[in-house]
Amino acid sequence: MRIYNTRTRAKEDFESRLAGKVGIYACGPTVYNHIHIGNARTFLNFDMIRRYLAFAGYDVTFVQNITDVDDKIISQAKQEYGDELASGAMSPEEATQLVAQKYTDAFERAMSDLRMLPIEPPGAYAPRATEHIDGMIEMIALLIERGYAYEVGGDVYFEVRTFGDYGKLSGRSLDDMRAGERVVVDERKRDPMDFALWKSAKPGEPSWESPWGRGRPGWHIECSVMSAKYLGDSFDIHGGASDLIFPHHENEVAQSEAATGIRPFARIWMHAGLLNVNKEKMAKSLGNFTLLKDVLTQGYDANTIRMLMLGTHYRKPLDFSDSALDEARAKVERFANCFRDAEWAVRTADVSEPSEVSELARACDECETEFRAEMDDDFNTAGALGAIFELVAALNVLLKEKAGALPDADAADVRHAATVIEELAGVLGLKIRSNAKETAAHAGEQGRAALRLPDGSAIAPDEDSMSSLRDSATALGLTVEREEDLVLAVLDKRAEARAARDWAASDAIRDSLREAGLAVEDTPQGQRVTPILSSPRDLAHGSS
Ligand SMILES: [Zn+2]
């Protein structure tokens, strides 16, 4: 496997520090607002990297931190809890903690909507900065003791001149940086590029006790401390968005290597490309952002968003637009339709052993080989998807040729090809088996109840639909305790009616589900329910 290393500016053969194990640290969100689709791209790419390393046989430890103390969170807390803070009803610590928790919850919900692998021990950790303040104080004290940092009036700065390699990761000299950055003159700093490790407490801000008085940590130190805690002083892969290379990652290297004396801090630095809108970086500060949750409520599902993101190499910029989303959705439909056609074609066949010589069997082998080769080449997801699409095309050809009369020998190959497509797409987090019309639920936040369909996908009818469902349930004499059981209970009732050949009742129930925005179809496998959506574009843009 070859991976591009920002540190050496070259693709390198990947050799993990410990045989068979990989440690990855990816910088996580600052939880002061909902994430936009550009942030989502970075997280999705590191989820893809984590998934593929595991598929390739590595025992992966994945760490993605939550930055829950920061200027932006403090200012959001002042906005959301201004009155409580002014009256003293709430302390700055409480207000920032509430904001951080609210957006941490929103982040976790968004990640699960995008079908990211859960970040849970063992094997994955999502440490919060505020839970590691002691470790940060310890590292800062060590940096002062070793002569890399100094304290002035309750603030502590890292002195960049003392660290010879400063600038190596981003490829910039101190002189370039001084010229390139808009440096605010601060008399107390020994060099304008010196950066804060600890900031003395200001009124209205959360603060912690430290040897330098009350204050809070700078942003960079948390990642040095938390990566060491979970992965050790030197580990395999450190990642983040490419706009973190300088100053965040440059500063992490300086802090960690100065504190431990161990080099390199991270053996490989991986940086994900940014998401652009009209060739400009998507950023909250530029006002050109689209929130991930809005894309999801517009009816674009996890498969579509993943297909869009993974269609471009993780290091390259990606242009985001509605038409790009629609193209991605069409690709997902091609996968899903082919998969469904294949399942349908083999439904009655005996599919014991696939042949080893048929054209389709060879296409399966080629697909698997090609998929691995592309992914082994610095995670070329676009190429890997291309390999799956070739198999989809080969399978479609065969299904068309043999329409209506599939011999058992071919059926085994068809089933095998469908399985290969499902498995390899699954490595990329695409869930082909679920209906392409699956929509994501934003249950708690908007006071709606999430519903789970029989195929496991989630839907979130609006309040009107929910109340119409509740009415039909009552009319049917059903008492349903949990709202999420409502749809299934109504479907069970319909199945009963059909079993009793009471077509009028069955149709009436189908109509009431339709009222609630759910279409019911009778298939040989039972009732299939799909949410009825207007076209996403209508939902997204209204009449414009
Ligand atoms: Zn970081």
Task: Supply database-style keywords.
Rossmann fold; binds zinc ion; alpha/beta; single chain; five-stranded parallel β-sheet; Isoleucyl-tRNA Synthetase, Domain 1; globular; 544 residues; four-stranded antiparallel β-sheet
Mind explaining what this structure looks like?
The structure is a single chain. This protein is of the alpha/beta class and 544 residues long. It has three domains: 285 residues, Rossmann fold; 97 residues, Orthogonal Bundle (Isoleucyl-tRNA Synthetase, Domain 1); 98 residues, no CATH class. A five-stranded parallel beta sheet has the order 5-4-3-10-11, sandwiched between helices. A four-stranded antiparallel beta sheet has the order 6-7-8-9. Strands 13-12-14 form a three-stranded mixed beta sheet, covered by helices on one side. Helix 7 crosses helix 8 and helix 13 packs antiparallel against helix 14. The C terminus is likely disordered. The protein binds zinc ion. Zinc ion (ZN) binds next to loops.
What is the element layout, followed by pairings?
Blueprint: E1 2-5, E2 10-13, E3 21-26, H1 37-55, E4 59-64, H2 71-80, H3 82-87, H4 92-113, E5 124-125, H5 133-145, E6 149-152, E7 155-158, H6 174-180, E8 195-200, E9 215-217, H7 220-231, E10 235-241, H8 245-260, E11 266-272, E12 275-277, E13 280-281, H9 292-297, H10 302-310, E14 318-319, H11 322-345, H12 359-376, H13 381-401, H14 408-427, E15 451-452, E16 458-459, H15 463-475, H16 486-499, H17 503-515, E17 518-523, E18 526-531, H18 536-541
Parallel strand pairs: 3-4, 3-10, 4-5, 10-11, 12-14
Antiparallel strand pairs: 1-2, 6-7, 7-8, 8-9, 12-13, 15-16, 17-18
Helix pairs in contact: 2-4, 5-7, 7-8, 10-11, 11-13, 11-14, 12-13, 12-14, 13-14, 15-16, 15-17, 16-17
This protein binds zinc ion (ZN).
Zinc ion binds next to loops.
